[in-house]
Amino acid sequence: MYAITIPEPGGPESLVWADVPDPVPAEGEILVDVVASAVNRADLLQRQGFYDPPPGSSPYPGLECAGRVAALGPGTEESGWSVGDEVCALLSGGGYAEKVAVPVGQLLPVPEGVDLVTAAALPEVTCTVWSNVFMIAHLRPGETLLAHGGASGIGTMAIQLAKSVGARVAVTAGGPEKLARCAELGADILIDYREQDFVAELKKATDGAGADVILDIVGAKYLDRNVKALAVNGRLAVIGLQGGVKGELNLSALLGKRAAITATSLRGRPLGEKASIVAAVREHVWPLIATGQVRPVVHATFPLSEASEAHRALEASDHVGKILLTRP
After folding, report:
1. Phi/psi at 281 (nearest 5 deg)?
2. CB neighbours (10 Å) of residue 97?
3. Residue 121 and residue 322 in contact, taking contact as beta carbons nearer than 8 Å
4. 27-67: per-residue pLDDT in tens?
5. How far apart, in whole angstroms, are the C-alpha atoms of residue 57 and residue 277?
6. pLDDT digits (tens, 9 = 90+) for 68-78
């Protein structure tokens, strides 16, 4: 098969479309013919040499895909999947390829009303948002969620899922165009991080209360301000480090608000944890997508062999939603 390889870490030009051995599904895995994948920030880090795949995972980038079941691996004969089924999947790597072996617990059916290519935009964002905002931070109806990077793939999904449970949603994004798109998806409080202080704007919009849950992709740069923006009993979920890895934390402020901070990633979690998250997403999120209450947001699509151009597009940060890759 062909896959995107990284012979040497570097810029987008270091991604090479090459002929590589076909994957062989191990015990508990299913082989999928990939139709589409999606670009995530983790892929950029892997390309740069900063985020190696977990041991035993595919060496190729790509944390999600959509395609068709090509073969059932050992121990999956009674899994309920059949050759030819249309699926999408959460991956530890390998999505930038023509075939990928997937642990059976990380497969999902393509949601009703979504085409196979667009389904590639769903696994990573739905699993990330549902696990952090709902399974860990327990966002409830009537509470306020602050999603940083509201126009990103994660942000556009967080807005919709939070609104679906009756929460109020605040977002930060860069510029009026991105904020307008967030508003279209249901965001209630729109903050331009380039021009406004999100702590002050959020306090103003919530009568001084702050956010009950904050979903943060920035990390160290926002740590102190995130704690200031939290409501009493608030929960800060850190899922990205775009703003650095080391920050100073005022524990007195955290204690005063009886607040909590969690930090998670999906890629390195044990298979059982990933399977539980995928099952929860299938139960709670897939029906919302089937009814149209929640929808994938796709900014652009590139041929898989042109993954370097897709990486440039993501790095430019002009997108709203997901950037997809399709097989040539």
Report:
1. -65, -45
2. 27
3. yes
4. 999 999 999 999 999 999 999 999 999 999 999 999 999 99
5. 19
6. 999 999 999 99
Name the residue among 262, 258, 260, 265 with its Cα closest to residue 240: 265
**Contact status, residue 99 vs residue 32, Cβ threshold 8 Å:** yes
| For residues 228-233, average pLDDT | 97
Q: Nearest 5°: phi and psi at 194?
A: -75, -25
> Could you give the CA distance from residue 216 to residue 218 in angstroms, rounded to a whole number?
6
- Give the confidence band of 246 by pLDDT, cuts at 50, 70, 90: confident
Distance CA 17, CA 4 (A): 5
* 8 burial type by CB count under 10 A (0-12 exposed, 13-18 middle, 19+ buried): exposed
Q: Which two tokens stand for residue 110?
A: 């393509």
Which tens digit of pLDDT belongs to each residue from 254-275?
Answer: 899 999 999 999 999 999 999 9
Phi/psi at 78 (nearest 5 deg)? -105, 20
Residue 318 in tokens: 């002009």
- Decide: 193 and 225 in contact? Cβ < 8 Å: no
Q: Which among 140, 4, 143 is positioned nearest to 60, based on CA atoms?
A: 4
Task: For the chain, state the CA radius of gyration.
Answer: 19
Strands (E), 181-297: 189-192, 211-216, 230-238, 260-263
Q: Percent of the chain having pLDDT more than 70?
A: 100
How far apart, in whole angstroms, are the C-alpha atoms of residue 111 and residue 276?
A: 18
The torsion of the CA quartet 90, 173, 298, 41, rounded to 10 degrees, works out to -40
Q: What is the pTM of this model?
A: 0.96
Helix (H, G, I), strand (E, B) or coil at 61: coil
Q: How far apart are CA 12 and CA 248, in angstroms?
A: 33
Q: Which residues contact 308 (CB under 8 A, 6 or more apart)?
A: 12, 13, 15
